[in-house]
Amino acid sequence: MSETPRCRDYAEITDVRAHDPAAVGRAWQERRTRSTLRGNGRLMIVAADHPARGALAVGSRPTAMNSRTDLLDRLRAALADPGVDGVLATADILDDLVLLGALEDKVVFSSFNRGGLAGSTFELDDRMTGATAASTAAAKMNGGKMLCRIDLDDPGTVATMTACAQAVDELAAHGLIAMLEPFMSSRVNGKVRNDLSPDAVIKSVHIGQGLGATSAYTWMKLPVVDEMDRVMESTTMPTLLLGGDPADPQEAFASWEKALSLPSVRGLIVGRTLLYPPDDDVSAAVATAVAMVR
Predict the structure, then answer these.
(1) Percent of the chain topping pLDDT 90
(2) Where is the Cgl0159-like domain positioned along the sequence (predicted)?
(3) Residue 112 to residues 71, 134, 218, 229, 293: CA-CA distances in angstroms?
């Protein structure tokens, strides 16, 4: 079987999708993969799973992520840094990147995504709408990520927890990382808010790490909050720190640097802060984060 040619530009991606959709699967099979950890055992992962849940704003820019080609440009710039281990994204973005040849020798996490779109009446209905353990394994990725928002006043939460537990088990059966992002959440003035107080994050960690029949392949994805040393005492799971969309990137960098010294922390998984910095210098923002992780 001949090697699938890599797309040179975005028009070629559309052409391939129209005329030879099977090329996507071939590109995944021919991609050069890598083990999740190497070197100092830390990871620098770029996240791009925001658009699929309708989160297109970055800071004061409400339509920052509207352009797919601009996002891909930014992702390719980030992945070109040898200190960036890989990417977390939904299938649509990952398929574009693999066709472009941007995922060679990179760690790849699929996003199982969430059904609860921000601002919707069904926002806490977080049934999974993206990747599956089977699709993640078939594409020879390193693992899958799922969100687990826990609202003690919403009976639908138990369905989310059950789905996450099942995903943990299915990923473990394939020997793949199950990356859980837990939050204690509630509606405040009609809007869903995550409780980022240390004790709430600690509670979410305990609930999240108990999901599934095995924790052997479970990792945590946690926000950097106050008293992070106390938060990290709640788990022995390898943990990646999430970046969010901070008002002050420099303040975020300082908080990450401090938290990276904690025992269970194994690196960063950051999206908008690095891909859409205020000066739009993606390479410089990524280099700053990489220096912290390395």
Answers:
(1) 78
(2) 41-290
(3) 20, 11, 15, 29, 26
* pTM, full prediction: 0.94
Residue 186 CA to residue 152 CA, distance in Å, equals 8
Domain residue limits, the chain: 43-293
Residue 67's contacts (CB-CB under 8 Å, 6 or more residues apart) are none
**Tokens (6 digits) for 260:** 């990276």
Q: Which residues contact 269 (CB under 8 A, 6 or more apart)?
A: 43, 45, 46, 47, 88, 221, 240, 241, 242, 243
CA dist., res. 132 & res. 117, Å (int): 19
User: What's the token pair of residue 200?
Assistant: 């709430």
Residue that is written with structure tokens 């060679």 in the block: 104
Closest by alpha carbon to 129, among 106, 111, 108? 111
By the 8 A CB rule, do 41 and 266 touch?
yes
CA 291 to chain centre: 20
β-strand 43-48 against 265-270: which pairing, if any? Answer: parallel
Would you say 275 and 254 are in contact if contact means Cβ atoms under 8 Å apart?
A: no
Q: Report the candidate in 73, 74, 190 with the shortest Cα–Cα distance to residue 124.
A: 190
The predicted-structure confidence for 216-238, as pLDDT tens digits, reads as follows 999 999 999 999 999 999 999 99
CATH of the domain spanning 43-293:
3.20.20.70
Which contiguous run of DSSP H or E holds residue 279?
none
- 55-80 pLDDT, tens digit per residue, is 899 988 999 999 999 999 999 999 99
Q: What is the rounded CA–CA span in Å between residue 65 and residue 217?
A: 32
The one-character DSSP state at 164 is H
Tell me the two tokens of residue 62: 């409400």
